[in-house]
Amino acid sequence: EATHSILLVHSQCEKYDSASLDKLTSVLMSGIEGLKVESSEKRPFASREALITRATGSMDGVQVHLQALALKKDRCLYDVVLIANSADSLKKDVTAFDALLGGFRP
Length: 106
Hints:
It is a single chain. The chain starts with 5 loop residues before the first strand and ends with a helix. It has two helices and five strands; from the N terminus they run E-H-E-E-E-E-H. The chain is α+β, with helices and mostly antiparallel strands and 106 residues long. The protein has a five-stranded antiparallel beta sheet with strand order 1-5-4-3-2. It has helices spanning 21-28, 87-103, and strands spanning 6-13, 33-45, 48-59, 62-73, 76-84.
């Protein structure tokens, strides 16, 4: 059964090299109304510290559930975000999120 979740991968170099991972994640989620961060954990990824955040809120009146990774490496920022329309969809699709991270080489 399709979940209609979205998996977003984004990178940008040199613009954000002095900002913290917490600040970068905050900017990434700034368009989410009623944002509630459920968890936020720093852990090693690609030989650097990454921030994994799980949150809920709404966009344009639609409930969203997110899991995001923020990583800074070699003056570049990398964001990987899973956006789902329900907690069940997020739970189902987090496997794809983890698989993408398993093959991700910044």
